[in-house]
Amino acid sequence: MNSGIKNANVACEISIIIPVFNEGDTIEQLLRYLTENASSPALLEILIVDGGSTDATRNIVSSFSKTVSHKIELIPSKKGRSVQMNTGAHMAQGRILYFLHADSFPPKGFDSTLITEVGKGNKAGCFRMKFDSKHILLRCSQWFTRFNVKICRGGDQSLFITKEIFDTLKGFDEHYIVFEDCEFINRLYDHGVFKVIPQHVITSSRKYQ
């Protein structure tokens, strides 16, 4: 289902893929943040891949999309984050895929940063991460995201990857119900491509609380 899209004929550089299920309390805040903090409407499209939400998520996305110049599309999918992210990647038009959770906020100008990194030859990677909490255990956990090793990775840090590499690795393994992001990132490391950008995604601590 397309949601009142402007700039539909502009070739985008980045496809932001956000899997959602009943994110009515958070999705408008994230969409507003992304559209206000991107460098240019022409640089990205935002694909909201819905796994069958029963709350107001879909109506909120549809209504918000009509108020901005960015391309925002609501895509129905089977439930399951790995399935939803693969569905979004299949529909994406950008040469760079950027997978983002509905409660995570990338740094201002994130789109230009990603394009610059890919231009340098960094074809996959993530930002460092901070939680929106000062809990000592979460502060300790977020500190380790600066290190470029498998054990310090997770989906809350977001993930960028060129569509070429994503297709080469055949996407997320849909057998995984959880930790699908860790499994895929492990394959990226084995493939020899991963960059940790020294800027931060701010992620909600709600799951950990």
SSE diagram, text form:
Blueprint: E1 14-20, H1 27-37, E2 44-50, H2 57-65, E3 71-76, H3 81-91, E4 96-99, E5 104-105, H4 110-119, E6 124-131, H5 136-143, E7 159-162, H6 163-168, H7 180-191, E8 195-203
Search tags:
209 residues, alpha/beta, 7 helices, 32% helix, globular, disordered N terminus
How do you describe this structure in short?
By secondary structure, this protein is an alpha/beta fold.
Task: Describe this protein's structure.
With about 210 residues, the chain is α/β, with parallel strands linked by helices. Helices cover about 30% and strands about 20% of the residues. It contains seven helices and eight strands, in the order βαβαβαββαβαβααβ. The model is unreliable at about 1-10 (pLDDT under 50).
Give the end-to-end Cα distance, rounded to a whole number of Å. 35 Å
State Rg.
16 Å
SSE series: EHEHEHEEHEHEHHE
The total beta strand count reads 8
Average pLDDT for all residues: 87
Q: How many separate helices?
A: 7
Query: DSSP strand (E) fraction?
Result: 15-25%
Low-confidence stretches: 1-10
Structure class? alpha/beta
Order of strands, main sheet, comes to 3-2-1-4-7-6-8-5
- What's the overall geometry? globular
Biggest beta-sheet profile:
8 strands, mixed
Helix content: 25-40%
